[in-house]
Amino acid sequence: MERKVQLSGAGNEREKDFVGRLARRLFFSNRRGGPWPVPAHLQHEALTLPGNSGARLPARWFPHDRPRGAVVLAHPDRRYAQHWFVREGWVDFLHQAGFEVLTFDFPAYGRSEGGTTFFHEDLVTAARFAHQEAGGFPVHVVGVSLGAFVAANASPRLDFVEGLVLESPYPSNSAWFGSGPHYRLVKTLDALFPSAAAAFNAERNITKAAARRLLVAAATRDTITPVALTRAVAAAAPQDRTRYLEVTDVDHLGLFAGSSAYRQAVLETLGVPAAEAAALAASHPATESAPPHPAPSKGDVPARQQVPLEAV
Prior knowledge:
Strand content: 15-25%
Number of domains: 1
Largest sheet: 9 strands, mixed
Strand order of the largest sheet: 1-2-3-5-4-6-7-8-9
Number of strands: 9
CATH topology: Rossmann fold
């Protein structure tokens, strides 16, 4: 039976609710998908987390019999949503390293219901749940692309998190678009709703990150989130606690599979000793057989000027 989690949280202001729903309609259509089956060897508990503005967010808790900590994974802009981390081997990799894992769907993705684009509130809720379940063990957060942007915006409120990994984050929605009609639309919304704009400004919010260790990583061949955008986020992060890693000859979302140096840096940020992290990072867990990709729709154009982020 699926466990429905109840956690207390702040209410939603009227402006936040309006802006978040409008942005979801404008920029985050055609993200639904699944459910996709989890391989039998990955035992887990199905959950429903409470999301912003009354959302219901499917989640999975992957326990470990001898945990050293728990990791919350914030997914990229993929229809697979939380399942992306299963099929790419992240959950196997973290389990091998001794971590319990929490995955969840952002509103508008996977099998979620309701909610707005204030995804950073959902990540804070998920991290609090992991902190509650971890029973005193350290809690960490890993965000990838969209999930990294969300994690950077949530970072000031994650004061109980030890390690924070941001893969290919970007400073703001307007910086990501760069130009074109979506850029002008975002800039207009920012001017009309400055409090919402502040909530979606990773370059500003990361300056107040509370985690003890931060890793910001970029791929030099990334055309979805150009490396200059990720460098800007890294430069704004607390320099005494932040490590910046730039990997050559890797595309967007290719860091985990394509770079043992990145995998090692992730584990070190999660508190794994360097020698052990290097040994674990030397091999990449085999990914599951990927099911046929969802049929493309008009929202599935992998170009920065046409759709927000990498919807396919």
